[in-house]
Input
Amino acid sequence: MLTTGKRLLDLTADDLMSRDIITLQLSMSVRSAAHLLGQAMVSGAPVVDAEGRCVGVFSTTDLVRFLDQGPRAAPRSFQATPACYCSDWQVGELESLPADDVSRYMTTDVVTASPDTSIAELSRAMLDAHIHRLIITDPWGRPVGIVSSTDVLAAVAAEDRHHGPDEGV
Output
């Protein structure tokens, strides 16, 4: 629950972001990434290079998009192991996931924001890009937090609870 005392439209990424984030290494296998995300109970995470800079995002959407392309598009290591894949990393057998590096499946056109980005700009960026999370980065491109669509919704709910629906934003 937000306790900043700020009005809704005065909130920034710094007020909303989760700071305890996991990151995935470029060379991490899809299996390991899925295991790590499942343990953390998150549906995606930033992928970082050797210097810790965000170079991609790997999420359930990336894996589903790959699986939806069919067996012709699948690399050899993945063609012989069909399995049922569901959201939230509920995968029957992690061994059936490709051993390939996460870099082959991640989204590379990452949408990032700085900690001082307003809630309105964050919301607009998520809507425009059709994404559910923004990676918040420091000036060197290293992830320092994540703002999800759920974080924005929680801020709206907190505003309504504190100020009521008739008081405006």
Remarks:
- Residues 70-91 have pLDDT under 50 and may be disordered.
- The first strand starts at residue 24 and ends at 25.
- Residues 76 and 98 are 9 Å apart (CA to CA).
